[in-house]
């Protein structure tokens, strides 16, 4: 995995979990679609009970989302209890219904009546395109997948490490011609505030510099070691062979949840979601195309106050948000495991270059 380091945003190495759950109170659960022809799944980020301030910023030209309008700072809903990231393209957004049902059973959501059970859980969701990657076009997440993912999140201890690689919404992810997946990273700022990200790396663009074989994001997150020229030459041949067998990949999307324990307004959270897209642009080229649906959610749990005497205190969080998204993509690509099945061959970076 990438080295944890200090950055220009005034931060120290990551927290103990090395990822999104370093923002205490957040839990992450993954679930995969069952079946021999399935290569898809769902990931749920579960907020502390009572929810978190939330925002979203969509930059891709082909997004698939649910309940994102509710996150507009001009609208009613102040906090959300969960965010859903899912495979299955627009079909997979059904997984959010399972999360919504689970939250209702817990009496968690927007209170709309005198009875504590009278709630409407607002569950923002976004999907990636992975249809048919396991060979079965109709193997996609359902409400049952979402319920399994949120139950898995609820069962996690606070601060538990997040599983990375080809899991949850990253099960069928592909980035360029390579296998993608889930990655996560965190930073603790000098102020003590934590900023973290979880990413589903699934892009039309590539994470690999074609000149050297190094990961684009690694140039930012660490002192990137370029693979030996002969290793890179062999990798290029394998990628070309894989592309011939894969056929066209019409739609892709990179999704991220960027979270902090800072006490942010909804407008500040919206700014954090927007600038965190820079982290995708550093790690994937090209990015935000018409057949990407790149979407970043921001969550703020409010446990730590920003410095009220410094009107620019938000800047450190904005810089760190982009940093952790870049590192999370690097980690996702390194953690992914290749597949070669009826949906096509998708080699992993580790298959081509090792784990360096």
Describe this structure in words.
There is one protein chain. By secondary structure, the protein is of the alpha+beta class. It contains seven helices and 18 strands. The protein has helices at 95-105, 143-154, 218-221, 229-246, 266-283, 314-335, 349-353, and strands spanning 11-12, 27-32, 41-46, 52-58, 65-66, 79-80, 82-86, 110-111, 119-120, 125-127, 174-175, 178-179, 181-189, 194-201, 255-262, 295-304, 339-341, 344-346. Mean pLDDT is 90; it is low at 1-9. 25% of the residues lie in helices and 23% in strands. The strands form five sheets. It has a seven-stranded mixed beta sheet. Strands 2-3-7-10-5 form a five-stranded mixed beta sheet. A two-stranded antiparallel ribbon has the order 8-9. Helix 1 crosses helix 2 (143-154).
Summary, kept brief:
The protein is 25% helix and 23% strand. It is α+β, with helices and mostly antiparallel strands. The strands form five sheets. Strands 1-13-14-15-16-4-6 form a seven-stranded mixed beta sheet. A five-stranded mixed beta sheet has the order 2-3-7-10-5. Strands 8-9 form a two-stranded antiparallel sheet.
């Amino acid at each position: 995995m990438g080295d944890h380091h200090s950055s220009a945003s005034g931060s120290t190495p990551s927290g103990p979990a090395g990822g999104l759950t370093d923002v205490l109170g957040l839990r992450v659960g993954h679930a995969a679609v069952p079946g021999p022809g399935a290569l898809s799944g769902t990931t749920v980020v579960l907020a502390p009970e009572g929810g978190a301030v939330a925002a979203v910023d969509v930059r891709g030209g082909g997004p698939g989302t649910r309940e994102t309008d509710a996150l507009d700072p001009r609208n009613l809903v102040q906090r959300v209890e969960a965010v859903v990231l899912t495979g299955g393209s627009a079909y997979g957004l059904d997984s959010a219904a399972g999360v919504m049902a689970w939250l209702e059973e817990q009496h968690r959501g927007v209170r709309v009546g005198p009875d504590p059970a009278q709630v409407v859980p607002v569950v923002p969701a976004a999907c990636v395109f992975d249809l048919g990657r396991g060979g079965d076009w109709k193997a996609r997440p359902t409400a049952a997948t979402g319920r399994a993912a949120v139950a898995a999140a609820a069962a996690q201890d606070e601060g538990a490490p997040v599983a990375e690689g080809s899991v949850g919404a990253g099960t069928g992810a592909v980035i360029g011609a390579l296998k993608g997946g889930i990655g996560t990273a965190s930073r603790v700022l000098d102020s003590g505030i934590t900023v973290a990200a979880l990413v589903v790396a699934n892009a039309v663009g590539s994470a690999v510099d074609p000149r050297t074989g190094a990961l684009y994001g690694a140039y930012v997150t660490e002192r990137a070691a370029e693979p030996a020229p002969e290793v890179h030459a062999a990798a290029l041949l394998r990628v070309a062979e894989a592309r011939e067998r894969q056929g066209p990949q019409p739609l892709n999307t990179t999704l991220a949840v960027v979270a902090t324990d800072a006490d942010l307004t909804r407008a500040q959270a919206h700014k954090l979601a927007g600038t965190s897209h820079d982290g995708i642009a550093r790690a994937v080229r090209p990015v935000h195309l018409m057949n990407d649906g790149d979407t970043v959610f921001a969550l703020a749990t409010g446990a730590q106050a920003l410095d009220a005497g410094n009107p620019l205190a938000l800047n450190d969080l904005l810089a760190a948000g982009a940093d952790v998204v870049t590192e999370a993509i690097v980690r996702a690509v390194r953690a992914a495991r290749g597949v070669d099945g009826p949906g096509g061959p998708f080699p992993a970076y580790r298959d081509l270059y090792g784990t360096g």
